[in-house]
Amino acid sequence: MSREIASYVSLNKDLLKLYQSNSLRDTIANSLLTDAILIPQKIAQAEYTKCKTERLKNALHINIMLRNMTSYCTGLEKDGLKEKEYINLLRKEVFTFKESFKNWRNSIL
Question: What are the b/e assignments for 44-58, b being 16+ CB within 10 Å?
């Protein structure tokens, strides 16, 4: 969903080059994509480490990225994105994921 929203809101349709853009929307889209890609990686790292400190560190990073994703939605709205239903869908998915994430986090700590 993040990839599709980034593609939709971006002025630069080459998603691999968003980081080169000076546009606020492109910067937000790039950050949204980056965090969405990193979350599963951090989950895998937390799952496969035996160190409780590392699990906690990865869970903290995931929590920060989820909070950031919500902020990116607000940033897109403030930048004038008119199609708020897409942003609200992403917010809903992030909220749902946060609920599952809390249960998972408690199970690994």
Answer: ebbeeeeeeeebeeb
Q: Cβ neighbours of residue 68 under 8 Å, at least 6 residues apart?
A: 31, 35
The pTM assigned to this predicted structure is 0.87
Q: Is the pLDDT of residue 17 over 90?
A: no
3-state secondary structure (DSSP) of residue 1 = coil
Cα-based distances in Å from 8 to 69, 72, 83: 16, 14, 10
CA–CA separation, 72 and 61 (whole Å)? 16
Residue 30's closest CA among 39, 19, 46, 41? 19
* Counts of helices then strands in the chain (DSSP H, E): 4, 0
Nearest CA to 55 out of 67, 65, 47 is that of 47
